[in-house]
Write a structure and sequence with these properties.
Order of helices and strands: EHHHHHEHEHEHEHEH
Structural class: alpha/beta
Helix content: 40-55%
Distance between the termini: 5 Å
Radius of gyration: 16 Å
Strand content: 5-15%
Shape: globular
Number of helices: 10
Strand order of the largest sheet: 3-2-1-4-5-6
């Protein structure tokens, strides 16, 4: 393996949550008087930290979201997770392969620590990602597309950025990885290879089973 650390995005890469959370987000924003389709939510907010949602809505409408927006949104998302969330197909086998090869891995997610924890508990991934391997946009001043989160994860794991591979499925995440000086592998299950390539990605794959060989 040519990398000393593999950093996984969480939503859409480890847990199959993007369709659930973006459908809920689009519905909630529409309910609050900011008409948003599922497709628009994917385009504008996939891979972003919560502060980006607040900033974009304020920029576009001049209106602030309610103070309890994050709590209400996450409550609805967590309810959906309990009913429907699954790990991304093939990701457990990828993690088993990395363990067998002795390659460290961690999470670098725009989601909150609570969101990551709920998703990992529901999908059985929590034993593979103890607290020391979980890094959230909450831990840094700026979320993706800034490189801060990935640089923080590498620093905490004791690995130089150029020795890290990032697995991402959103343009914002790809931009963050590139800005951090890391190689990025674009997972195209929900976002086209064209869009991820435009964001700066160079290696694209559509099935998790392909990833271990690509990392060699």
């Amino acid at each position: 393996m040519r990398y000393d650390l593999v950093i996984f995005d969480n939503d859409g890469v480890l847990v199959d949550s993007e369709s659930l959370s973006n459908a809920i987000l689009a519905g909630y924003l529409t309910e609050l008087g900011h008409p948003t389709s599922y497709e628009e939510s994917i385009r504008d907010f996939m891979g972003s930290a919560m502060h980006r949602i607040h900033e974009l809505v304020l920029e576009r409408t001049g209106r602030r979201l309610p103070e309890d927006f994050d709590d209400v949104f996450h409550g609805r998302v967590f309810e959906a997770f309990e009913r429907e969330l699954r790990p991304v197909n093939g990701v457990t086998e990828v993690l088993e392969k990395l363990d067998a090869d002795g390659v460290p891995y961690c999470v670098g997610s725009s989601g909150s620590h609570e969101r990551i924890s709920v998703g990992h508990r529901k999908t059985g991934l929590e034993r593979r990602f103890p607290a020391g391997r979980v890094f959230s946009a909450q831990d840094v001043g700026r979320g993706k597309p800034a490189p801060d989160l990935f640089l923080h994860a590498a620093r905490e794991m004791g690995v130089a950025p150029e020795r890290c591979a990032v697995v991402e499925d959103s343009p914002l995440g790809v931009q963050a990885a590139v800005a951090a000086g890391m190689d990025v592998y674009g997972f195209t299950a929900m976002t086209s290879a064209e869009i991820l390539t435009e964001a700066g990605g160079t290696v694209m794959f559509g099935q998790m089973a392909e990833l271990p060989e690509l990392l060699r």
